[in-house]
Amino acid sequence: MSYGNKIIRVIKGRRPKIVVIGGGTGLPVILNSLRDKNAAITAIVTVADDGGSSGAIRDYINVVPPGDIRNVLVSLSDLPADFLNIFQYRFNSKDSFFAGHAIGNLIIAALSEMEDNIFDAVQKLSKMMKVDGQVFPASNEPLTLNAKFQDGTTLSGETEITHARNKVERVWITNTQDSTQPPKAVAPVLKAILDADVVVLGPGSLFTSILPNLMIPNLGDAVRQTKAEIIYNCNIMTQMGETEHFTDADHVRVLDRHLGGDFVDTVLVNTAPVPDNYLDHQKYDEYLVQVKHDFEGLRDLGCRVISDDFLDLHDHGVFHNGEKVANEIVNLALQRDGRRRR
Fold first, then answer.
1. Fewer Cβ atoms within 10 A, N terminus or C terminus of the chain?
2. How far is CA 341 from CA 76, 254, 263, 305, in A?
3. What is the pairing mode between strands 266-270 and 237-239?
4. Is the pLDDT of residue 12 over 80?
């Protein structure tokens, strides 16, 4: 069922507070649609990415990887498109350092050095880029993602884990600079979660984009303690090694298991079929098949299900329809009346 597309613009004289937690390419799609809904948006972005330009910069300079943060800043920025295109531009030079780097990644790395931390750097850059909302790195220090696979082996590093194409059993994170120090989120991140009307998880890779945030101990505690409605925006496709053969209920079970209890209140589920032979499996080689539905399993987990055609097909890829998902999220925020079960 679905609440439809009607949006109520006012809730007790204030903008609804929406926190979105994740990373990867799916997060900016939802944020870009939410920014037009008269909501107070906070994006909490993973800092455990170690691939591509972000990983190379992380190797050269001891900073939090900037790639996901860059994309989120652009999705919420009010700057003209020409400026944003420059910020997103990747060098195609064959120079050993600049090749493949996005200009925005270099700017974020430079500001991190100038401000002596990534959090203050992103806040300054948010003002410069006229960001409508708040963009918070999940942690102020670089984090390393670790995984144990179902065959008992372990690996460290988001890229290594993804490329292993092995079935993940559980993940955890450690402080990259000092593994003896527990990772932590800064106070504004925790306050945003505790003050929110809704907290949205995803879309994004379950084990490598969503859970790295929730595995930060005090951030995970805040998600468990908040009175906000917890919404899981379920992935449309399964991913090799991560969620092979998963149903939508299996995704929620993994989240619950990692956080130690049933904490997801509402699940957004796409019910539109992906046409046969549409997906370009060479371009999107991590995707396998469409996530199967288990509505009874979701209800047994205490979840309310909102199902609809959330599908957006283009460039032979499978994506969420940002506008439809954003409408449902805002409706839930506006209709929130202390429903939180836990």
1. N
2. 31, 19, 8, 15
3. unpaired
4. no
Length of the chain: 342
- Transcribe 107-146 into DSSP letters: HHHHHHHHHTSHHHHHHHHHHHTTBSSEEEES-SS-EEEE
C-beta atoms surrounding 70 within 10 Å: 26
Q: What is the pTM of this model?
A: 0.89
Cβ 333 vs Cβ 325: under 8 Å: no
User: What amino acid is encoded at 307 in this protein?
Assistant: S
> What digits encode the pLDDT tens for the residues 22-74?
988 888 989 999 998 989 999 999 888 664 444 444 444 445 668 889 999 99
Least confident range of 6-10, 71-75, 193-197, 281-285: 6-10
Backbone angles phi, psi at 334, to 5 degrees: -75, -30
Name the CATH superfamily for 17-49+135-334. Answer: CofD-like domains (3.40.50.10680)
- Note whether 303 and 256 are within 8 A (CB): no
3-class SS at 338?
A: coil
Q: What is the pLDDT of residue 96?
A: 66
Distance CA 99, CA 90 (A): 8
